Amino acid sequence: DADVTQTPRNRITKTGKRIMLECSQTKGHDRMYWYRQDPGLGLQLIYYSFDVKDINKGEISDGYSVSRQAQAKFSLSLESAIPNQTALYFCATSEARGQGATQYFGPGTRLTVL
Amino acid sequence: SQKIEQNSEALNIQEGKTATLTCNYTNYSPAYLQWYRQDPGRGPVFLLLIRENEKEKRKERLKVTFDTTLKQSLFHITASQPADSATYLCALGRRDSNYQLIWGAGTKLIIKP
């Protein structure tokens, strides 16, 4: 996990606040992903990026935006946080090769929106 | 609707026995399936990948099977140890969506000494 870092690890905020979650990686991977994890649900893809100029929406992108500042950095923003965005957020990376590339995850950010 | 199902109830296994976890899917045509392990407060860690044309893969004490007719993957841990206790996630790689992964919710495995 040390190859993929996320900051902050925990954050409590209030409804309506803007929040940025940051992800950095030293694996040299082109592909980066943001997921959220809720109890009893599978990981849900928010956004993914295949390189600095290629950013794509995932299945639940509403209310979120992202920025790929460099190959190593991928940030997730909640423009106006709402309580149902309370969740565990993971950043992941993978190599840009064929099918089945392993995803490497960061330690997660636990976000609570009051 | 498309979905992936894993046992939501925790699986309790005696140390030394074989643990078998199930991953069922509907309405997908997966190119491959992956299994990950997740410990509390940590991100998932990759364990094994099996492709649609493969029936079985092994890695040390781990074995994965993939039956595209039954739309099911089984994940086995032989000679289980308390250190194997964790939540295990399956994830399907869809051929129609840039091979993005669709995740199950995971099964919590508890190995009792």
What does this structure look like?
- The complex is a heterodimer of chains A (114) and B (113).
- Helices cover 0% and strands 54% of the residues of chain A.
- Chain A is built from no helices and 11 strands.
- Chain A is globular.
- The termini of chain A are far apart.
- Chain B contains no helices and 11 strands.
- In chain B, strands 2, 4, 5, 9, 10 and 11 form a 6-stranded mixed sheet that branches. In chain B, strands 1-3-8-7-6 form a 5-stranded antiparallel sheet, with no helix packed on it.
- In chain B, strand 9 and strand 10 form a beta hairpin.
- Chain B starts with a strand and ends with a strand.
- At the A-B interface, strand 5 and strand 10 of A face strand 4, strand 5, strand 9 and strand 10 of B.
Largest interface: A-B, 24 and 26 residues
Class from helix and strand fractions of chain A: mainly beta
Oligomeric category? heterodimer
Characterize the main sheet of chain A.
7 strands, mixed
Low-confidence stretches of chain A: none
Quick overview of this protein structure:
With about 110 residues, chain A is mainly beta.
Task: Record the SSE blueprint.
The complex is a heterodimer of chains A (114) and B (113).
Chain A: E1 4-7, E2 10-13, E3 19-25, E4 31-37, E5 44-51, E6 54-57, E7 64-70, E8 73-78, E9 87-94, E10 104-105, E11 109-113
Parallel strand pairs in A: 2-11
Antiparallel strand pairs in A: 1-3, 3-8, 4-5, 4-9, 5-6, 7-8, 9-10, 9-11
Chain B: E1 3-6, E2 11-14, E3 19-26, E4 30-38, E5 45-51, E6 56-59, E7 62-67, E8 72-77, E9 86-94, E10 101-103, E11 107-112
Parallel strand pairs in B: 2-11
Antiparallel strand pairs in B: 1-3, 3-8, 4-5, 4-9, 6-7, 7-8, 9-10, 9-11
